[in-house]
Amino acid sequence: MTTNRKAYFNYHIEESLSAGMVLKGSEIKSIRDGKIDISQAFCRIQNQEIWLHNAHIAPYENASIQSDHDPLRSKKLLLKKKEIKKWDLEVKRKNFIIVPLNLVITRGKAKLKIGLGKSKRKYDKRVEIRNREAQRDIDRTRKANK
Q1: How far is Cα 62 from Cα 8, in angstroms, rounded to an integer?
Q2: What is the pLDDT of residues 38-70, one digit of tens each?
Q3: Which is deepest, 39, 46, 98, 130, by most CB within 10 Å?
Q4: Does residue 79 have a pLDDT over 70?
Q5: Cα angle at 59 between 26 and 7, to 5 degrees?
Q6: Which has the closest alpha carbon to 105: 43, 4, 38, 33?
Q7: Domain 2-120 in CATH 2.40.280.10
Q8: Phi and psi (nearest 5°) for 141?
Q9: What is the 3-state secondary structure (H, E, C) of the chain?
Q10: b or e along 60-89 (b: 16 or more beta carbons within 10 Å of the residue's beta carbon)?
Q11: What is d(CA 102, CA 21) in angstroms, rounded to the nearest whole number?
Q12: pLDDT digit string (tens) for 6-24?
């Protein structure tokens, strides 16, 4: 399982969906080995299809030369047309961004959880950091008093 930890810090996630991915054999083997990075990845809607861009999947070590893949190849995400149209309207109307949140392998298939989010302002991030530090201080004092 791979998580994009920056996504929750940089965006307010309004809604999320789980999408399948179109992958090559060497890509899924590399994902099972945990050699994927989605921290710099983003999604775009092109021709009524959602594509994952800039996700780095390391080449599989034991793959032959013919079955090897490009590490930064764009991958098509599998969603229903109705869901894609709904998200396309949200992206165009409200300036939302489609962000990859985490990747899980279930029953041999790679599922990418994507979220519809809006960028946070700098002061929102500062408030979040302040609240997190305050909560840590509270937890430390509770633990020390036990």
Answers
A1: 35
A2: 988 889 999 999 999 998 888 887 766 656 677
A3: 98
A4: yes
A5: 100
A6: 33
A7: yes
A8: -70, -35
A9: CEECHHHHHHEEEEEEEEEEECCCHHHHHHHHCCCEECCCCEEEEECCEEEEECCEECCCCCCCCCCCCCCCCCEEEECCHHHHHHHHHHHHHHCCEEEEEEEEEECCEEEEEEEEEEECCHHHHHHHHHHHHHHHHHHHHHHHHC
A10: beebeeeeebeeeeebebebeeeebeebee
A11: 13
A12: 888 888 898 999 999 998 8
Dihedrals phi, psi of 4, to nearest 5 degrees: -95, 90
Calculate the CA 43 to chain-centre distance.
9
Neighbours of 14 (CB within 10 A): 12
Gyration radius of the chain over CA positions: 18
- Assign residue 60 a region (left: φ > 0; alpha: ψ between -120 and 50; beta: otherwise): beta
